[in-house]
What does this fold into?
Amino acid sequence: MTFKAAKYLPILDWGRSYKGETFVNDGIAAVIVTIMLIPQSLAYALLAGLPPQVGLYASILPLIAYAIFGTSRAMAVGPVAVISLMTAVAAGKIAAQGTSEYLATALLLALISGIMLLAMGLFRLGFVASFLSHPVISGFITASGVLIAVSQLKHILGITASGHNLVDIVQALGAGLPQTNIPTVIIGAISTIFLFWVRGQLKPLLMKIGVSERLAAIATKIGPVIAVVVAILAVAMLGLADKGVKIVGDIPKGFPSLSVPEFDLDLWRSLLASSLIIAVIGFVESISVAQTLAAKRRQRIDPDQELIGLGAANIAGAFSGGYPVTGGFARSAVNFDAGAETPAAGAMTAIGIALATLFLTPLLYFLPIATLAATIIVAVLSLVNIADIREAWRYSKPDFAAMMATIILTLTVGVEAGVLSGVALSIALFLYRSSRPHFAIVGQVRDTEHFRNIARHDVVTNPRVLTIRVDESLYFANARYMEDAVYDLIYNKPEIEHVILMCSAINDIDLSALESLEAINERLNTTNIKFHLSEVKGPVMDRLERSRLLHDLSGAVHLSQLDAIVATSGTSHGTELDFHL
Amino acid sequence: MTFKAAKYLPILDWGRSYKGETFVNDGIAAVIVTIMLIPQSLAYALLAGLPPQVGLYASILPLIAYAIFGTSRAMAVGPVAVISLMTAVAAGKIAAQGTSEYLATALLLALISGIMLLAMGLFRLGFVASFLSHPVISGFITASGVLIAVSQLKHILGITASGHNLVDIVQALGAGLPQTNIPTVIIGAISTIFLFWVRGQLKPLLMKIGVSERLAAIATKIGPVIAVVVAILAVAMLGLADKGVKIVGDIPKGFPSLSVPEFDLDLWRSLLASSLIIAVIGFVESISVAQTLAAKRRQRIDPDQELIGLGAANIAGAFSGGYPVTGGFARSAVNFDAGAETPAAGAMTAIGIALATLFLTPLLYFLPIATLAATIIVAVLSLVNIADIREAWRYSKPDFAAMMATIILTLTVGVEAGVLSGVALSIALFLYRSSRPHFAIVGQVRDTEHFRNIARHDVVTNPRVLTIRVDESLYFANARYMEDAVYDLIYNKPEIEHVILMCSAINDIDLSALESLEAINERLNTTNIKFHLSEVKGPVMDRLERSRLLHDLSGAVHLSQLDAIVATSGTSHGTELDFHL
It folds into this structure.
């Protein structure tokens, strides 16, 4: 029982040896992350189309839940950009921003994706995330970054504009342009320039004046806090709110009331697909952060337990007025750099955010939306990764195709269409490639026991014996291709008496491929060609022994290709031949 | 130009050397196939829910079209059982049997699936059919056989009953049972018993009295004609039509009028999925018949040209009052056994059916439906293949699962759901298996240069060096699994200084897997473990050279595993170790 509990509750593991020193380190990290997380939470709530306090709520109980169930020692969960965008898209299909239905839908997305993550963890279905290939994730993140940045321009301009793809957003921005509010543009522009400067120049500057690299990196991440404080003071003192600058305004003070998500079956059903995408994207983002940080300290991440941790975090968010969360890269790196040693740092961050929710919100009254938008823009533009696109082009054209399809569809149709078509195309391209495996006719390298491709090497062959090597496991999608290839190779070659299939690269033969081998054997037999197998691997042979192929085989199974040549040619060296494909 | 025409018109190839002797042989085969095809065409039209003459029409122009465009020398195309059932299901979703809309829908199914086949042939997309794995096809054919046989019981009982899955059909039969017509049951039962006897007993009997095996086989296939003739005489002479025995009745005499399928965009769209399934199933059935017959004479089948041939046949059918057709196994075998040498036999069969349509239809007036149903039942029960189910169970559990899913869903939900879920499950199971490849930690076999799995062989390893062999190409679906596996293997083993990935079984590394290798390299590096590759295949190495992995690699790429061990251990033999997974 204890063993089982420890398996699902990593807190029992690290909690047992928790020391005062660790507490201090975790506490320092928590303070820094809290300061960083306050403006982020507000900004991402804005991106998700939710009231600012929802971002704070999503940074309290979910962090506690992850601290109990998660395996990463330094992960900081909470609202992140891409998931916030996906929440806006999914909830926007159900209700209009600002309505209570919209709020309820965001809660429900957290609940359903939380349940899905939890179920994937308990049933060990985390491999589902593997089908999001790297080019699809990379293309999706890049396109989302562009989409988010462009969508935030409306707040910088002080206009209203909406849309879930680039075309709609740009059109809406164009239409709204005449309503541009100049004071807002000034605040937005200064905030953006300042934040870009902090991101690019602050760290080297601090290091030049003697600040350690770690501290400089942390200071850089706290830049948004400075922007927020200055912007609040500027708006309050210059009375800009009266000049059309939109501000955060009243944030309900105090703890979120415990919320109970709606149980409307139709609503649940219509959110299933979106929730799954949010769950999987969130998991992929989170696990890669967790693995990176864990590797630095030779710690271990259990992906199935991570699913449980993230699931618990989202479910906790759903019952405390939050919306979907996951592990964020920037804040986890800050947490790690600031010295967090255990998930207790996350729990302490939650307490920090809770205190901020209780006491700090009145101070945020004059915070201009434009500054929050600037923090989003600067954060998400770092997600845009052109180098990855170039690398995909150089390394692999199918991967490039999947990436471009994802980018183009994400930008022109929307985030869900982008991800889904990227995944579908990756799988289709993989299946297509494996359905036409590489075939080689092989011959013997003179005076050796090696057999190589006749097209690439100077080898000896016997005109009466044709040896074919397939460089792939045989399964339904390539079985018929192999059949056709064998028939093509013997067509119009009446001299052939033996066909040998060299199986050295075959790790598996499924039932369809077995049927194809039986068909080849039978059809070759009707034309008096004997069919042989050579170099069959142990596990494949075990399986073939359960079939009737070995019994029906007109030729034989040979341990080595050399044995096969000796048996069919009567000599260990074939006679030379000008026989090519 | 001539070359191109010959490529798409195989008739130019065999037509050039056509001789009188070939004509005689083709003619004899055509007469036999015509006799066999008349009752079959009527029966399968009945199964498709169409008037009997539609079956005859589908056996005229389609045969001519196939003779011009097809590559199989002995293939006989026309209506077949499974495609007729699928036509009934697809058309039944649009209109009720007996209406002109139903007839128009059947025409349209032939046209759309014909266009799809043609397009697949021209764009060389025949590989799509590969995704119908053998267990799915086998399960589908078996379940269809059961479904068809049960659905024909209503004609044997002389009642009305409908439904497209076993549950519906059995319920309808039960409800109709009180209306059973006794004379119909007698005719149906006698026909069925007679046809089973012909199928099982006639051939050995004829051979015993000295008939050659080939002739006996042909005679067996003509059994249904005898049943039809006797049944017509019985009904006519005993006046059974007045006693409630349903008969074929008036068949419009003469050629079909040229039909023009409807161009209703919504109707087309709603038939796309069904047409694709009909096209692919028809192609799979046809190509396997063609390959089997071609192999017997060392002839060659071009699958892409076969698609064009079948596409042309279906389009021809659509414009001459027919419905979807494909190459049938039984009739093609008869054609082959009867001596058909070229597709001219098919064209002559078409002339035979045309003559029958002109002059023979009045003779079919008294043909009882029950006898046609009996020919269907006896034909389709031979499709049921229990041995295949047993073989799948014995050979491979995933294949068995795909087969059973197909069978169960075909019977309980319907033919389309059955095929689609079978295909989806096959692909999912394949992806799942390839997403968790086999890993082995390898060590050196004492006093050799061979490296084997430490779990299976008595090998030597060095505690500072971990060598991992992956037995699968690396791609997105298994990249993360590999990453996790490597991290797990080094976790809590501070003695490890080198990790070697032995790549002898890796045929490809896609971009996702490359990223994973880079992540492994980077993360191992942060803990001072060097990462090496060994035995990388040539094409994989070519590709890796276009990436930054080789530049960033903390270790090195070694030509052989032995080189890798020498480089990392400083000796060609590792020290022994009690280190196991």
Observations:
- The beta strands of chain B are 77-78, 326-327, 439-445, 451-453, 459-460, 465-470, 498-502, 530-534, 557-558.
- Residues 14-427 of chain B form one domain.
